[in-house]
Amino acid sequence: MKVLGIESSADDSGVALIEAQGDFGPNFHYSVLGNEVASQHHAEYGGIYPNVAKNEHIKNLPLIFERLPAEKPDVIAVTHGPGLEPCLWAGINFAQKLATEWNVPVVGVNHLEGHIIVSLMRYDSEQKTVNSEQKEVDLTVRCSLFAVDFPLLALLISGGNTQLVVSDAPLSYKVVGKTRDDAVGEAYDKVARMLGLPYPGGPHVAALAAQAREKNLPHSTKLPRPMLSEPNLDFSFSGLKTAVLRQVEGKTLSEDEKAALCREFEDAVADVLIGKTMRAVEEYGVNTVVTGGGVSANTFIREKLMQALDEAGAKLLVCPPALSTDNALMIALAGYFHALKKEFTDPAALTANGNLKLG
Ligand code: KG4
Fold first, then answer.
1. Residue 321's pLDDT band (boundaries 50, 70, 90)?
2. Distance from C-alpha of 157 to C-alpha of 143, rounded to nearest angstrom
């Protein structure tokens, strides 16, 4: 089955074409025939403006689609949530137009399910997931999915989401913990803004934090670890953000002071993310954890998480960086499994749901 994937939930426009066979399990194989992403640059606004982003998607989707092999798919998979609704509509309208032209069925895909499934990606030639530092996806080799023992735990950390999800079986999900206010990526972006760093702030804050560790700068402040000791799996990042603001307000910080503050912020974030993940691992008897979303590209968080899981006898599967941010390959993959189950949607009835939930 050939599946065209379409992604436009935030500021990345993506299209991908895969050819897949077999059901979820050892007989599943696929080839990536094309995977194209166009990223927008919202640096000058310090954030994403949904209507500006929507117009960019409308412009970019046809352009990147032209770069895919000119083959008619058997089904179209499109992200219908969660995300920014004007942006989601750009992808949905594009899918509707193609579905009518080709007379092929459509499946609506939950963006977060895409992040979970693509974390299991592996090349047939390798016995592990594709978690190298590869920037590009190798289109020449056949792929499959890493065999996992359920339950599987997913830590989804991005600019729009912070969730812990337990999956007891393929395509079945239960959200067991989530943020009660800001997403973790949003907290990174806001801290970056307070320090005068560009958007998106995550990589800049992470770079300063790494500098502070390298220089072994003194620890001058202790920030809170919100909700860490509460007996649940939820998160809160707005208090942490406010605590950073208190350190910055009315002061001119030196470069070293900024770096030390970024390190303390990142330590607090890592302590909370990892503490809650380990609590979930224990509560649900999990031995495989996946992580996805923009913040999962953070080396410090990845390494600390890997270490904690290792000590608990569990393993971490991650995407190559090229696939941990938004892309359509993950949407085509998730869409394939729903197409196998004939979970098609009437293209005309497809709607965007900014708050679409998993499970
Ligand atoms: O998943 P993603 O590409 O897009 C959506 O959220 O939709 O995630 C983007 C988020 C931004 O908040 C960005 O600051 C953050 O991921 N991010 C990072 C890193 N790289 C990206 N945060 C911390 N460390 C990083 N290395």
1. confident
2. 25
- Distance from the alpha carbon of residue 22 to the mean position of ligand 1, in angstroms: 33
**Which atom, in ligand 1's list, is nearest to the CA of 292?**
1
Q: Measured from the CB, is residue 292 less than 6 Å from ligand 1?
A: no
The CB of 163 under 6 Å from ligand 1? The reply is no
What is the CB-side half-sphere exposure of residue 186 using CA atoms within 13 A?
14
Q: What is the pLDDT of residues 26-52, one digit of tens each?
A: 899 999 999 999 998 776 666 788 999
Does 324 contact ligand 1 (Cβ within 6 A)? no
**C-beta of 114 in contact with ligand 1 (< 6 A):** no
Average pLDDT, the chain: 94
**Which amino acid is located at 240 in the chain?**
L
CB-ligand 1 contact for 36 (6 Å cutoff): no
Sign of CA dihedral 47, 160, 170, 288: positive
Pocket of ligand 1 contains residue 119 by CB under 6 Å: no
Split at pLDDT 50, 70, 90, the class of 65 is: very high
Compute the distance from residue 320 Cα to the ligand 1 centre, in Å: 14
Amino acid at position 250, single letter:
G
- pLDDT value of residue 130: 62
| Res 54 pLDDT > 80 | yes
